């Protein structure tokens, strides 16, 4: 087994919570943590170029191993020089394993102890994934961080079903560690903690996984049907129990309030389709709350989406114009909206990092906990103001 890397360093910590600011060194560059990873499932964040992503402030992006196996194939990407060259992204890349698809494509897969067989949603051919082949596929891609293959279950689920998935995930994680990685560009391997909403199972999973030589750990199996307060409670329970010297990653979360709450628990890394998918659907995040751009209220509005935002969209276009693009179905609207939402999320992460360092993170956490509903409430730029 490879030994865990020592490329993560905690730079500062918040006195009133478990929040921490850090630096993660990876083969393709540094990641400032806490960090949010834009999701480029097929090797592209829809509508955006690598330059757009850098300008938004992204240090690292996420792609999905299962979907890249489906199209165009990880061997083809390897033969063309790896995923970084294929998509012309020079920064770090993390790839999810396909474990989420075991949950989301349950009608297209058959699970067994050795692995999982999918029916390719793009044509119907069989795709076989094992813990070993999943790591090998990610090595073909040449990514900076590979995730182990795991099993997650919908929430709520009966305790025996949750335990069964947790036990299988641990067995698969140990098999993934046996795949040689030393000679392949320093790809890191992260383990995934399962256990649903059961604290005893989560604690047991951590106790059994933490001694293993993973380079980081993810809290998985959440944001799959549980209430926000259940999500926050389980992250608050699990994150501080993970090894302090390794990266802690919360998979598939979420809203700005969820991110702030998870940072307070000690999480360093996030991903979610929320800002990009919402952007394409015309739901936009601003420092004053959310805007649904299709609403007729914006038809004559000459203001930018967010007067406090420095993104390309807000510096050049009005709400009226963005509404016009949306209602006419012009693809430029989705691109400009996505640029804004990702800039908003990256600005939030910058705020979080700065507040951890200057000792004011508690004000941001208080703001998140006082929100009257998701996406509404006082500006996180001005947490001391009345709205």
Structure description:
By secondary structure, the chain is of the alpha/beta class. The protein has two domains: 8-272, Queuine tRNA-ribosyltransferase-like (TIM Barrel); 278-363, no CATH class. 39% of the residues lie in helices and 18% in strands. The chain has 15 helices and 16 strands. The strands form four sheets. The protein has an eight-stranded parallel beta sheet. A three-stranded antiparallel beta sheet has the order 1-2-3. Strands 7-8-9 form a three-stranded antiparallel beta sheet. A hairpin with a 4-residue loop joins strand 7 (109-111) and strand 8 (116-119). Helix 13 (319-328) crosses helix 14. The chain is globular, with a radius of gyration of 20 Å. Residues 372-387 have low confidence and may be disordered.
- The SS-based structural class is alpha/beta
| Number of individual domains | 2
Known CATH architecture of the largest domain: Alpha-Beta Barrel
Tally of alpha and pi helices: 15
Radius of gyration: 20 Å
- Main sheet strand line-up: 4-14-13-12-11-10-6-5
Summarize the amount of helix as a percent range.
Answer: 25-40%
Overall shape: globular
Overall pLDDT confidence: 93
What is the CA–CA distance across the termini? 54 Å
Percentage of residues in DSSP E strands: 15-25%
Low-confidence stretches: 372-387
Give the strand tally.
16
CATH C-level category of the largest domain: Alpha Beta
The biggest sheet amounts to: 8 strands, parallel
CATH topological fold name of the largest domain: TIM Barrel
CATH superfamily of the largest domain: Queuine tRNA-ribosyltransferase-like
């Amino acid at each position: 087994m490879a030994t865990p890397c020592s490329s993560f360093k905690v730079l500062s910590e918040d006195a009133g919570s478990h929040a921490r600011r850090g630096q993660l060194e990876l083969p393709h560059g540094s990641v400032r943590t806490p960090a949010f990873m834009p999701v480029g499932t097929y090797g592209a964040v829809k509508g955006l170029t690598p330059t757009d992503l850098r300008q938004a402030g992204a240090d690292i992006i996420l792609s999905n191993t299962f979907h890249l196996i489906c199209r165009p194939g990880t061997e083809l990407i390897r033969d063309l020089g790896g995923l970084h060259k294929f998509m012309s992204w020079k920064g770090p890349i993390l790839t999810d394993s396909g474990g989420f698809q075991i949950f989301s494509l349950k009608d297209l897969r058959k699970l067994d102890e050795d692995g999982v067989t999918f029916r390719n949603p793009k044509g119907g051919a069989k795709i076989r994934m094992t813990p070993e082949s999943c790591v090998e596929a990610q090595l073909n891609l040449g990514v900076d961080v590979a995730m182990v293959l795991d099993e997650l279950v919908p929430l709520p689920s009966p305790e025996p079903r949750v335990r069964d998935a947790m036990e299988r995930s641990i067995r698969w994680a140990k098999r993934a560690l046996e795949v040689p990685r030393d000679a392949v560009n320093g790809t890191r391997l992260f383990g995934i903690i399962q256990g649903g909403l059961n604290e005893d199972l989560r604690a047991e999973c951590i106790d059994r996984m933490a001694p293993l030589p993973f380079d980081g750990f993810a809290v998985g199996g959440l944001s799959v049907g549980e209430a926000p307060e259940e999500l926050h409670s389980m992250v608050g329970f699990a994150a501080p129990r993970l090894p302090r010297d390794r990266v802690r990653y919360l998979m598939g979360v979420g809203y700005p309030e969820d991110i702030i709450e998870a940072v307070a628990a000690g999480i360093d890394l996030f991903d979610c389709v929320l800002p990009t998918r919402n952007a394409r659907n015309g739901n936009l995040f601003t420092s004053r709350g959310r805007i649904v751009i299709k609403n007729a209220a914006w038809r004559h509005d000459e203001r930018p989406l967010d007067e406090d935002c420095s993104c390309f969209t807000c510096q050049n276009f009005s709400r009226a114009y963005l509404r016009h693009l949306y209602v006419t179905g012009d693809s430029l609207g989705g691109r400009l909206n996505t640029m804004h939402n990702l800039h908003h999320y990256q600005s939030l992460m910058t705020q979080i990092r700065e507040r951890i360092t200057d000792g004011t993170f508690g004000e941001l956490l208080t703001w998140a906990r006082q929100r009257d509903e998701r996406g509404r409430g006082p500006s996180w730029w001005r947490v001391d103001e009345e709205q």
